Amino acid sequence: MNSPAPIAATTCRFALEGESGGPLCHCAGVSEASVRGAIDFRGVSTIEEVMETTGAGTGCRACHCRIQRVLNGLPAKCGGRFDWCHRCGCVNAVCGCEAA
Amino acid sequence: MKGNQEVINALNAGLTIELTAINQYFICAKMCKNWGLNKLAAHFYAESIEEMKHAEEVIDRILYLEGIPEIARYDKILVGDSPQQQIQDSLTLESKGVATYNAGVKLCLEVGDAGSRDLMERMVVESENSIDWAETQLDLIQRISLERYLAQQIGEAGAD
What tens digit of pLDDT does each residue of B35-60 get? Predict the structure, then answer.
């Protein structure tokens, strides 16, 4: 019987042990799951309502594009070459974590 | 002027590294000063201020392109518990900066944003200078031993 395939190691040279996830809104430290929960269970449907309900987006406003993506039913991460990887702190163009 | 969103994202990635570096170099400077390593402290302090000027340039460019600077996003701030580790952490951070800005330069060439490319190219060169410094220090430690290296870093107490 074949042994199970080993879990691929993180290949990104900048990856930090135990780092994953990360907030959608860095100012308020609000996760994507919290924003999604507010949309699914509390009926919020606009960025203003997300701000009022979760606190996300009330600081520098740089996360508004990510909140809008979640409101549109998409993942907060746009997946572009310069999207941020919370595990290694690199953009996708440099990060090797996704390929691991 | 409305800029390309991916270029703005690339500039924001660079900004995150600059903001992280300001703090990382600053705590290194203060720790080295506390250890009595005044020359090394002065170097880290100057690096911290330089990173702040880089951050200013990047923020100005993002605003010019009508983007929103990600001023609250930081990478992990590595606080080395020895001078050698601090130099190694500086090397890691600056290497990340070079890789990020080089990817940004490539993007700018693709979308025809010469202004952002010029800025990012200058940031690459600045980071490479910092990498060169860190590699030289680590090489010196290997050559003359840590004790002799640290003796050279005591210097005179400054105002920092």
Answer: 999 999 999 999 999 999 999 999 99
Domains of chain B: total: 1
**Probe site for chain B from A67, A90, A91 (most B CB atoms < 10 A):** A91
Residue A67 is part of which domain span? 32-99
CB-closest option in A60, A80, A89 to B70: A60
Q: Is residue B159 part of a domain?
A: no
Q: Do B125 and B59 form a contact (C-beta atoms < 8 A)?
A: no
* Count of domains observed in chain A: 1
Q: What's the gap in Å between the CA of A7 and the closest CA on chain B?
A: 25
Q: How far apart are CA B47 and CA B39, in angstroms?
A: 13
Rounded Cα gap, residues A34 and A56, in angstroms: 9
ipTM rounded to 2 decimals: 0.75
Contact: B99, A90; criterion CB under 8 Å: yes
Which pTM was predicted?
Answer: 0.87
Q: Determine the pLDDT at residue B78.
A: 92
